[in-house]
Design goal:
Rossmann fold; seven-stranded mixed sheet; elongated
Length: 415
């Protein structure tokens, strides 16, 4: 299962699965690099269905086009990366409609592109109008559909209902705050709490604001708002659960209390492409989140825009743990930065020796560059496969980081 499929199915489940939805049937459930089973809430009775026995399969079909469930007995049917392998997929849709309860829902994901991959056959790709046609054929109602822009599969996602009155979710329905990832007690190893740096990062950010003089500034992860307060013009800020002391006290600040993933999904036209002059990414300290944030931010940047990423230079392995266990915490942001350096030689990447955990300044962003979008699932798989990679000594030593004087920053930016 590729990463973008898991992310899209998680969005379907979060947005459209109700607490009373108990019975869930997954068509094509064999666990191949991941399973939707892990996305299910604890109360769900999940049944994995496939053509052969295997990991994650509870029911093996005797007849491909007959689902062994009673009429109107299932709350949720979900299926991802199955329809393209089903020679007569419309027959399966009739079966989905039959077994769903009145008001039941189906979450379907299928590719609109990508290479041939036979399991055991590969017959189809699906374009945006396909799901409305299938809804019309089967008697289901298409609530919402969208096409993922990330390759190589560019999945088409559809949410269907058997009758009912469910309407498309066009904005985050309710805030689900994340647990504030602050640690009160220091780590038992004092070395894990050490920091270093030639200048405080806020001083460097202040210089960057002066040098860039952004008309529009974007910040992901506001904490108490200290870095956001450096902006002088219009600012767009995103955070699902800022610090209790955070206050938005300037009318020029457009604050969105949601995750960055939700912001970019529900507000695709909120920011004009090419309009962001300076962006600061300091959200979730996990490599895959920074990857998605960078992709979404870069496409909005002005040609001379500057992207700054925090927490790129940890100096102790403990600081890089994905589950926070120290007060000084960078997560594994460094792994995304390593990937960026390998895959985007067109960018200007500048490591700054700032206190406490280093900054990366990215120049020459390209809204037209599609490498990260086209190869997203490959890169996400790489990040997943290298999750236990040790922290390189060169990062600990900050051997390639420069002292971020004002003059050096001006040289880096060409200002």
């Amino acid at each position: 299962m590729h990463a973008s499929s898991m992310e899209n199915m998680a969005r379907c489940i979060t947005s459209y699965m109700d607490p009373e939805d108990i019975t869930v049937v997954d068509l094509g459930a064999m666990n191949v690099n991941g399973s939707y089973r892990e996305l299910m809430p604890d109360h769900a009775n999940y049944v994995g269905v496939d053509l052969e026995a295997g990991n994650g399969v509870d029911v093996v079909l005797e007849d491909v086009y007959t689902l062994p469930f009673e009429d109107g007995s299932v709350d949720i049917v979900l299926s991802g990366q199955m329809l393209e392998h089903c020679a007569h997929f419309w027959k399966v849709f009739n079966e989905i409609a039959r077994i769903l309860k009145p008001g039941g829902k189906a979450f379907i994901i299928a590719p609109s592109s990508g290479p041939v991959h036979r399991y055991p056959v590969d017959c189809y790709r699906f374009y945006p109008d396909a799901y409305q046609a299938l809804a019309d054929w089967s008697g289901l109602r298409l609530i919402q559909s969208w096409t993922d822009e990330r390759g190589p599969w560019y999945d088409l996602i559809g949410v269907f209902q058997k009758g009912g009155t469910r309407q498309p979710l066009l904005q985050q329905a309710s805030l689900n705050p994340v647990a504030q990832n602050y640690r009160q007690e220091p780590h038992v190893d004092p070395a894990a709490e050490r920091t270093r740096g030639e200048r405080p990062y806020l001083d460097v950010l202040r210089d960057l604001h002066t040098l860039v003089a952004p008309e529009i500034y974007l910040e992901i992860g506001v904490r108490k708002g200290t870095s956001l307060a450096l902006s002088k013009g219009r600012a767009i800020a995103i955070d699902p659960d800022p610090h209790a002391d955070f206050k938005v006290d300037r009318p020029e600040i457009d604050f969105h209390r949601c995750t960055s993933d939700d912001f970019f999904f529900f507000n695709p036209d909120a920011i004009e492409p090419g309009s962001i002059d300076l962006a600061f990414i300091d959200g979730m300290h996990l490599a895959e989140y920074v990857l998605r944030d960078f992709m979404n931010v870069e496409r909005l940047m002005s040609p001379r825009g500057v992207i700054v990423i925090d927490d790129v230079l940890p100096i102790h392995q403990v600081q890089t743990e994905r589950a926070r266990c120290s007060q000084v915490w960078t997560g594994d942001v460094w792994r995304f930065v390593e990937l960026l350096a390998q895959t985007r030689p067109d960018l200007g990447l500048h490591w700054l020796d700032t206190e406490p955990t280093g900054l990366l300044v990215v120049t020459r962003p390209s809204a037209q560059n599609r490498v990260l979008w086209q190869e997203y699932n490959k890169f996400a798989r790489h990040l997943g496969d290298t999750i236990d990679a040790p922290l390189p000594q060169d990062i600990i030593d900050r051997g390639h980081a420069v002292t971020p004087t004002t003059a050096m920053l001006a040289e880096i930016l060409g200002r």
